[in-house]
Amino acid sequence: MLAAPEKMRVAMNVTSPIHIVGGGMAGSEAAWAAANMGVPVVLHEMRPLRGTEAHQTGQLAELVCSNSFRSDNDETNAVGLLHWEMRQAGSIMMEAAAGAAVPAGGALAVDRERFSAAVTERLMAHPLITVERGEVAGLPLAGWDSVVIATGPLTSPALAQAIRDKTGETSLAFFDAIAPIVYADSVDTEKAWFQSRYDKGETAAERTAYLNCPLDRAQYDTFIDALLAAPKTEFRDWEKNTPYFEGCLPIEVMAERGRETLRYGPLKLVGLINPHQPAAKPHAVVRLRRDNALGTLYNIVGFQTKMKHGAQAEVFALIPGLEQARYARLGGIHRNTFLNSPACSTARCG
Fold first, then answer.
1. 3-state SS assignment for residue 253
2. Phi, psi angle pair for 100, to nearest 5°
């Protein structure tokens, strides 16, 4: 008797596999969905044989930037509702996130290593999924009947050029940035405190999921001055006109748009009370979100940066609570490749 996936495969008359290029979150989710419909899949991932500027492992669905999937409230938030819909559809991302979740108030955040390890393990064990390591340097090879290109923002140069040639687009890239990760035991909790905004969460761990570092007006101004004056990564000539991703701007770029911009962005003071000085309202608050299950690592929320590494520790030391901070990873900036979908019509790209 045929197993359920095999019955589905025969019913759909699938005789050749779907080739999915890219083992990030999109490619991994697509592979999982297709295989669970009984369709054989060959998932192509170039790492670890060929690395990127931002990845650190060869795991599938590695989280490069944030470890947060944002709000998990499916009643009042559109992102949370999307999470609910993905769970109903059997999403491997949501399944892995549940097993790797770390306290994050009302958000869904994960231990990034446990998350990618769980996705990798499930995909590698699926009988209809074959993971092939190695770079796909051009557009689909002859004999590939069904293809999904899901290489993501860190596509290899050769494949990015092939896509560029196919689409006719001359600007497929923008810059993205990565926030620093701090060792929790190096944060001064005589100045910082644990609290989620508005004490969100069903458990004490959720309600105290973030570390908060307060700045008064003078400290904020000193920090902004140092941030703007710090040496930054210089772009090469061919990169200078590449735009930033507006949803993940470097903090210094935000500060250049106005001295108060950060106070109304990642440093906004809402839903927080400093227990060390409950009567004194901070001018701004720097927040750190738990980055691993053990609670030994915290990332500085919204602090993606293009400051040179030597300057980062000096500038961040101006933040109360981070004077002696030690960093598991400093911030950085890298070039992402995205298809300009609105400009790429079916007629041009199909």
1. helix
2. -115, 15
Element (H, E) at 329: strand 327-329
Fold assignment, 4-165: FAD/NAD(P)-binding domain (3.50.50)
Beta-ladder partners of 148: 20
Higher pLDDT, 143 or 283: 283
Per-residue confidence band for 155, with pLDDT thresholds at 50, 70 and 90:
confident
Per residue in 196-246, pLDDT (tens digit) is 999 988 899 999 999 999 999 999 999 999 999 999 877 665 455 666 666
Give 317: exposed, middle or buried? Use CB within 10 Å, 0-12, 13-18, 19+.
middle
Q: Where are the alpha helices (DSSP H) in 192-325?
A: 204-207, 217-229, 251-256, 309-316
Domain boundaries, the chain: 4-165, 177-336
Whether the predicted pLDDT of 10 surpasses 50: no
DSSP character at residue 17:
P
pLDDT at 9 over 60: no
In sequence order, which residues have a C-beta less than 8 Å from that of residue 303 and are 6 or more positions away?
179, 180, 251, 266, 286, 316, 331
Give the tokens for residue 87.
Answer: 């769970």
- Give the Cα separation of 111 and 114 in Å (integer): 5
- What's the CATH code, domain 177-336? 2.40.30.260
Picking from 302, 275, 104, the residue whose alpha carbon sits closest to that of residue 206 is 104
In DSSP notation, 37-104 reads: TT--EEEEE-TTTS--SS--SS-TT---S-SEEEE--TTT-HHHHHHHHHHHTT-HHHHHHHHHEE--
Cα–Cα nearest to 192, from 208, 170, 175, 176: 208
